[in-house]
Design a protein that fits this description.
Layout lengths: L2 H9 L12 H6 L10 E5 L5 H8 L3 E6 L2 H11 L4 E5 L2 E6 L2 E5 L7 H4 L4 E4 L8 H14 L5 E8 L13 H8 L3 E10 L10 E10 L2
Parallel strand pairs: 1-2, 1-6, 2-5, 6-7
Antiparallel strand pairs: 3-4, 4-5, 7-9, 8-9
C-alpha cells in the first residue's frame, strides 16, 4: 500500500477516517497519558483530523506524519494558519506555532527528524496498514518516538466481510505487536453503531500502551 493509494482516496473524497468532531475516545482517555500543557504529541498518518485542533486547544504541541500533501494543505487552511515549508531529505516539514507536520513516507521519518515526543496518539495508522506493514510499523513507531506511551485506536471485525482499510486488528494482534515493549491496558471496547462503514458488525477499541520501566 503506497502513498498513491491514499492520494487517490483524497482525490476521490473517500475520507472514511475523517470525523466531523474530535474523536470521543481521545477526549475520554487523553488524561491517561499523563500529559501537561506544552507536551508534544505525535499523530502518525494524521490526515487533517480535527483531533489536531482539539489537542492544540488543550495546550499541547502536535507533530504529525502524513503521506498526502493535499490533506496537510487542507489542514493548515482549515486552521487558518500559513505554514513554513522546509525540505528534509525525502520529507517536507509544514510548520506553524506549536504544530509540525511531516509530509511523506512515515518509514522515512527518523527520531532526529521527528524530535522529542511525550506521547503518541495512533487513531488511524496501525489500522490503515496491511498485516505485513503493521509488523514493521509498530517497531518503527516505538523506536522513533523513544518508546513514548501511546493511546491506540483499533478495530475488530470479520475481515472476510469487508476489505480494509481500516483493517481488523484484534486484541491478540495488538498484543503481539506491542506487549514486549509496553504494558497494555484495554481502556474500552464498544460496538460501532450501524457497523463499520455500515456494512459489517465491528468493535472499536481504545488501548493505553505504557512504556515498561
Amino acid at each position: 500500500m503506497q502513498a498513491s493509494f491514499w492520494q487517490q482516496k483524497w482525490q476521490n473524497n473517500e475520507l472514511g477516517f475523517h470525523l466531523p468532531e474530535p474523536h470521543p475516545k481521545l477526549v475520554r482517555h487523553i488524561g491517561r497519558l499523563g500529559l501537561k500543557p506544552g507536551d508534544r504529541v505525535f499523530l502518525p498518518l494524521c490526515g487533517k483530523s480535527l483531533d489536531i485542533a482539539w489537542l492544540l486547544q488543550q495546550g499541547f504541541k502536535v507533530v504529525g506524519a502524513e503521506w498526502v500533501q493535499q490533506a496537510v494543505e487542507q489542514l493548515f487552511a482549515e486552521l487558518g494558519v500559513e505554514p513554513t515549508i522546509t525540505q528534509i531529505g525525502q520529507l517536507s516539514r509544514y510548520s506553524a506555532h506549536q504544530l509540525d507536520i511531516l509530509v511523506g513516507d512515515i518509514f522515512a521519518v527518523d527520531a532526529d527528524t521527528l524530535g522529542l515526543v511525550d506521547a503518541v496518539y495512533d487513531r488511524a495508522a496501525l489500522v490503515a496498514l496491511p498485516a505485513d506493514k503493521r509488523i514493521l510499523y509498530s517497531r518503527h513507531l516505538a523506536a522513533i518516538s523513544g518508546f513514548a506511551s501511546q493511546l491506540l485506536i483499533s478495530f475488530e471485525y470479520d475481515q472476510s466481510l469487508l476489505s480494509g482499510p481500516p483493517f481488523s486488528v484484534p486484541p491478540e494482534e495488538v498484543k503481539a505487536h506491542y506487549q514486549d515493549m509496553f504494558t497494555l491496558e484495554l481502556l474500552e471496547s464498544k460496538a460501532i453503531k450501524g457497523g463499520l462503514k455500515g456494512k459489517c458488525p465491528a468493535d472499536e477499541q481504545a488501548w493505553l500502551l505504557s512504556a515498561k520501566s
